[in-house]
C-alpha cells in the first residue's frame, strides 16, 4: 500500500532517494463500504494505491489527461494528493468533473477534493498543460529535437522519480503498475509508447495490462514523422522491428544471426520476454545511448557509427536494453539507491554473451573499460551516504563498478555458473528488489556467506577505496616458482582472486592468488611451474579485479568518458 494523501512535503521528483516499498506491486486491499458513519460520504485525506495509469497525451499541443485507477483504503475520504510538478486545469472523481475550487497545487504536489470516495476501486483524473523542459542535461522531461534527417523527434520521458514532471504520479521507483497510453498526433506521423501497440492515423494506443512496469520506464511517449517501420528478425517468440528515419544505420550495423542467437540465449536464461511478442527499436537523437521502455527501446540514432570503449557499441547497447526488460522493468528498484543492480545485470549479461558467443575481443574490451572507469567512482555501488545522494549525481558511477564488483569479481570466488544462477533467481518473481536481495540470491545459489564481500566492496558511504597489489617472486627449486601478492593499500584485506602473469625470456605463466571471501591475511603466496628467471610480472592483466596501482594519484588522474544508457 502507498500513501498518496498529504505527500506534498515528501514528493520525490527525479532526484528522489526514497526507500520505496518491498513488494512493488502498487496493489492495495479492497474493503466494501458505503462511506462514513450513517452512510454519509467519507471526508478527510484519501489513502490509496495506484494500480493503473490511463494517459492521453498530445505532444505537439503539450496537453495531457491522466486517469489514475486507485484502490481507496478504509475509511475513504474526499481529498486526494499526489506528487505533481504541474498544476491541473481540471480534475475528476470517477469521471465527474470537480469544482475548480477543490483543485490546488503547491509546486510539488497536486491536491484535489470532491465528493467523498468510499473504500474500493475508483478513478481520479487530472488535465495538465505540459512544459517543454529537460532535466540534468539528459533526455528526461519533454523535448523536441531534430534527428539526423531533419525530422522532429518529440519525447516524453520519465526516469527514476520523474513521472511527476507530467502530472499526478507516484514517482517512487519501487511501484509497479499497469498502463494504457494514447498519443494524439498529426496524420502520417509515427508514434511509439511502451507495451502492445495499435497504430492509428491520428491516435496511437499502447497497453501494458499484463506484466506491470515501473513509472520511470513505462511513463513515456514519442513521435517522429520520419520513422519507417522495418521488421528485422523473429526469434525466441519475439519479432524485432526497427523504427528509423530513411538512411538510418542502426539495423544495418547489427548482425541478424547474432541478434537471434542472443534472444534465444537471454530468454533461455531469464524466461519469455515479459512484455509481449514484439520488440520495437527506435532510433532517435538522444543524449543517452539507449533507454529501456517496456517492449519499446530507444537507441541513439548514430550508435552504429560512433566509437566508444565497447568493441561493438550498437550490439552491446542493444543487448543491454533488452536485458532491462527483465532487470529494471519486470523487476524494479526497491529504492533509487539500488540503481546499480539493474545496470550491473544488463552490463554483465551482455558481457557473458560477448564472452561466449561474440567475436574475440568484445568481452575483453568491456572488462578493460569497466576496470578503468571504476577508479573514478565517487560513490559506492550501493551508496549509504546520509543524506542519500540524488540519483542523477551517482548513477554514472555504477556502469563500471556495478558489473565488476557485483559479478565479475565473484566468478572465481563462487563460480561463474553460480553467479548466473543467482541473477536468474533474483529476477524470477518480478516486483521490487534491493541490492541486499541480490546478495541473498547469490548466497542461495552458491551456499557461500557473501556478507564480508559485500561489506568490503559494495556497501558504504563516501568514495570507495580499492586495493593496491605488490608482487614478489622466489625460485622454489625443481622448476617451481613462488609468487607472493600483498595488498598494500593498508587496512583490512579485501576479498578477491588476483591473477599475476609471470614472464621469462622464453615463456609465460599465470599465478592465481586467492585471498578468499573473508580474508585474514594481506599476503598470499602460491607456487607454480616456472623454470626460468623472471623478467617481469603483471597484476590483473585481464581486468578481473578493480585495483589501484601503487602510487597512482586518483585525484589528478584524468577522468575517463562514462557511456550512459
Describe this structure in words.
It is a single chain. By secondary structure, the protein is of the alpha+beta class. The chain is built from twelve helices and 31 strands. The strands form eight sheets. It has an eight-stranded mixed sheet. A five-stranded antiparallel sheet has the order 9-10-11-16-13. Helix 4 packs across helix 5 (339-357) and helix 10 (416-427) packs across helix 11. The longest helix is centred in the middle third of the chain and has 19 residues, at 339-357. The radius of gyration is 26 Å and the shape is globular. The two termini are 31 Å apart. The relative contact order is 0.09.
Record keyword descriptors for this entry.
565 residues; alpha+beta; 8-stranded mixed sheet; 12 helices; 20% helix; globular
Kindly, what is the distance between the CA atoms of the first and last residues, rounded to a whole number of angstroms?
A: 31 Å
Please work out how many helical segments DSSP would assign: 12
Q: How much of the residues is beta strand, in percent?
A: 25-35%
Please give the order of strands in the largest beta sheet. 5-4-8-2-1-12-15-14
Main pleated sheet: 8 strands, mixed
Q: Which term fits the overall shape? A: globular
Q: How helical, in percent, are the residues?
A: 10-25%
Number of distinct beta strands: 31
Radius of gyration: 26 Å
Q: Identify low-pLDDT runs.
A: 1-13, 15-37
**Helix/sheet category:** alpha+beta
Average pLDDT, rounded to a whole number, is 93
Amino acid at each position: 500500500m502507498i500513501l498518496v494523501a498529504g505527500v506534498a512535503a515528501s514528493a520525490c521528483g527525479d532526484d528522489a532517494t526514497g526507500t520505496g516499498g518491498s513488494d512493488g506491486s502498487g496493489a492495495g486491499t479492497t474493503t466494501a463500504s458505503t462511506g462514513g458513519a450513517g452512510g454519509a460520504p467519507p471526508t478527510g485525506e484519501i489513502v490509496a494505491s495506484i494500480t493503473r495509469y490511463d494517459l492521453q497525451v498530445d505532444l505537439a499541443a503539450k496537453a495531457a489527461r491522466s486517469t489514475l485507477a486507485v484502490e481507496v483504503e478504509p475509511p475513504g475520504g474526499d481529498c486526494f494528493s499526489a506528487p505533481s510538478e504541474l498544476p491541473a486545469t481540471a480534475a475528476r472523481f470517477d469521471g465527474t468533473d470537480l469544482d475548480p475550487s477543490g483543485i490546488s497545487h503547491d509546486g510539488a504536489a497536486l491536491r484535489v477534493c470532491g465528493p467523498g470516495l468510499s473504500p474500493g476501486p475508483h478513478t481520479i483524473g487530472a488535465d495538465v498543460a505540459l512544459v517543454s523542459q529537460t532535466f540534468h542535461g539528459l533526455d528526461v522531461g519533454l523535448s523536441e529535437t531534430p534527428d539526423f534527417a531533419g525530422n522532429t523527434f518529440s519525447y516524453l520521458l520519465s526516469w527514476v522519480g520523474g513521472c511527476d514532471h507530467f502530472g499526478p504520479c507516484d514517482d517512487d521507483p519501487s511501484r509497479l503498475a499497469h498502463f494504457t497510453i494514447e498519443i494524439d498526433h498529426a496524420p502520417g506521423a509515427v508514434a511509439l509508447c511502451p507495451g502492445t501497440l495499435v497504430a492509428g492515423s491520428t491516435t496511437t494506443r499502447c497497453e501494458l495490462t499484463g506484466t506491470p512496469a515501473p513509472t520511470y520506464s513505462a511513463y513515456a511517449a514519442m513521435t517522429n514523422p520520419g520513422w519507417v517501420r522495418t521488421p528485422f528478425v523473429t526469434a525466441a517468440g519475439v519479432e524485432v522491428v526497427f523504427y528509423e528515419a530513411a538512411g538510418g544505420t542502426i539495423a544495418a550495423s547489427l548482425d541478424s544471426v547474432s541478434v537471434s542467437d542472443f534472444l534465444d540465449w537471454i530468454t533461455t536464461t531469464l524466461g519469455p520476454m515479459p512484455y509481449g511478442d514484439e520488440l520495437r527499436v527506435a532510433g532517435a537523437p538522444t543524449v543517452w545511448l539507449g533507454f529501456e521502455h517496456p517492449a519499446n527501446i530507444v537507441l541513439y540514432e548514430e550508435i552504429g557509427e560512433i566509437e566508444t570503449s565497447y568493441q561493438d557499441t550498437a550490439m552491446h547497447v542493444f543487448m543491454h536494453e533488452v536485458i532491462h526488460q527483465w532487470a529494471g522493468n519486470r523487476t524494479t528498484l526497491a529504492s533509487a539507491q539500488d540503481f546499480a543492480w539493474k545496470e550491473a545485470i544488463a552490463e554483465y549479461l551482455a558481457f557473458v554473451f560477448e564472452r561466449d558467443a561474440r567475436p574475440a575481443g568484445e568481452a575483453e574490451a568491456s572488462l578493460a573499460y569497466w576496470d578503468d572507469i571504476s577508479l573514478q567512482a565517487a560513490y559506492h555501488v550501493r551508496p549509504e551516504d546520509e543524506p542519500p545522494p540524488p540519483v542523477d549525481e551517482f548513477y554514472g558511477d555504477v556502469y563500471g563498478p556495478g558489473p565488476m564488483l557485483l559479478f565479475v569479481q565473484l566468478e572465481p570466488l563462487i563460480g561463474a555458473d553460480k553467479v548466473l544462477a543467482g541473477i536468474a533467481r533474483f529476477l524470477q518473481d518480478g516486483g521490487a528488489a534491493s541490492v541486499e536481495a541480490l546478495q541473498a540470491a547469490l548466497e542461495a545459489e552458491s551456499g557461500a556467506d557473501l556478507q564480508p564481500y559485500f561489506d568490503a566492496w559494495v556497501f558504504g558511504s563516501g568514495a570507495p577505496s580499492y586495493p593496491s597489489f605488490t608482487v614478489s617472486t622466489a625460485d622454489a627449486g625443481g622448476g617451481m616458482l613462488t609468487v607472493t601478492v600483498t595488498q598494500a593499500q593498508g587496512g583490512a584485506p579485501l576479498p578477491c582472486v588476483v591473477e599475476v602473469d609471470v614472464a621469462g625470456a622464453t615463456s609465460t605463466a599465470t599465478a592465481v592468488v586467492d585471498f578468499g571471501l573473508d580474508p585474514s591475511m594481506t599476503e598470499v603466496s602460491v607456487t607454480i611451474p616456472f623454470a626460468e628467471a623472471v623478467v617481469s610480472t603483471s597484476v590483473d592483466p585481464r581486468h578481473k579485479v578493480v585495483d589501484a596501482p601503487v602510487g597512482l594519484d586518483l585525484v589528478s588522474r584524468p577522468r575517463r568518458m562514462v557511456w550512459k544508457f
